[in-house]
Design a protein that fits this description.
By secondary structure, the protein is an alpha+beta fold. It contains five helices and nine strands. The structure holds coenzyme A.
Length: about 200
């Protein structure tokens, strides 16, 4: 099965708040672009929200946590070969950073990358995460040459499971007590999608 396609396309650097920032993918409503130090406050706004981080291995963040995250992102971006894309999800119309998404190469030889996303609470329920996830999947297959995109999500987080399904991933496995996170063992669904040519 192949994944759903999106409007993702190669884009030149764009000017954003006076800086040149690389746009990685675009959709009808969103721009997925590289993060900068100037994003600290906007990231901190959602990364410190307990409802946003409930199913994530990190957070709620202090400002120092978010600063460390940004430093790690910059280091990951500079690595060659680059294995980590941690991107801002920005609304086209404002432009406002409303969340973050991630594609990390987890196995270079097998061509596998894992996918993640989080949105500020005020932007849930508008189809934005699904739009971002679809664009990242397309980026993984068409730009990175990935063969497989995968993600884990808790059964208790059905909105995330639905986002993965809408991005073309299928549920492959159920892992009981897969991760110990924030004081308790969490079950996981593993979702994945193979590149159309695989
Ligand atoms: C999960 C999250 C990214 C979803 O973002 P979103 O932009 O609201 O997602 P979308 O609107 O694109 O799609 C959500 C889908 O889930 C469905 N959904 C939402 N809550 C649901 C629930 N309780 N049960 C079943 N489906 C649900 C929606 O109806 C929608 O599906 P539809 O379009 O078929 O109607 C967002 O809630 C979030 O950032 N959560 C915190 C971070 C997080 O959990 N990240 C994922 C970690 S694995």
């Amino acid at each position: 099965m192949s994944c759903a396609s999106s409007h993702a396309s190669p884009s030149p650097p764009t000017r954003w708040s006076g800086d040149l920032i690389q746009v990685v993918a675009e959709t009808a409503r969103l721009v997925l672009r590289e993060l900068t130090d100037a994003d600290l406050e906007a990231i901190q706004a959602y990364a410190s929200d307990p409802a946003v981080v409930e199913f994530l291995p990190w957070g709620p963040n202090t400002e120092d946590d978010t600063r460390r995250f940004l430093s790690a992102v910059m280091a990951g971006r500079a690595a060659r070969p680059r294995r980590q894309w941690d991107l801002a999800i920005v609304l086209r119309r404002e432009p406002r950073l409303v969340g973050g998404c991630r594609l990390h190469v987890t196995d270079e030889i097998a061509g596998e990358a894992d996918l993640g996303y989080a949105l500020a609470r005020g932007y849930w329920g508008q189809g934005l995460a699904s739009e971002a996830a679809r664009a990242l999947v397309e980026f993984a297959f068409t730009r990175l040459g990935a063969r497989r995109v995968w993600a884990v999500c808790e059964p208790a987080n059905p909105a995330s499971a639905r986002v993965l399904e809408k991005a073309g991933l299928r549920r492959e496995r159920f892992l009981r007590a897969h991760r110990f996170m924030k004081g308790r063992w969490r079950d996981s669904y593993v979702y994945a999608c193979d590149s159309p040519g695989r």
